[in-house]
Specification:
The chain has a single domain, classed as Jelly Rolls (Sandwich). Helix content is 0%, strand content 62%. β4 and β5 form a beta hairpin.
Length: 107
Amino acid sequence: MANTFINAKLDLTSTNATVLYTAPSLITSIVKSILVSEDSGNADTVTVTLTDAAGAVFSLFKVKTVGANGTVELLTAPLIIQTGEIIKVTAATANRLHVVASILEIT
């Protein structure tokens, strides 16, 4: 069994749902942290969803506010992601938010 820490990063340059992370096959993924930073000087909101392997979409954070020039930690506990599941992030306004997720992959 091997443990690998990775991070997934996004600069949300559009208002489309954008893939932050897809859990690879044969790996257990534990998301330890999801940080969202606002860098334009304007408060904004972010939505985070989890799509399961069957295509069902679950809301993790719906219209979460990020203050002007602020950073928000979204998770208060680790989040387990199963094979094929996808975390997507959507910004209310383009070119304002950055997202970084810290993930432990266990093989």
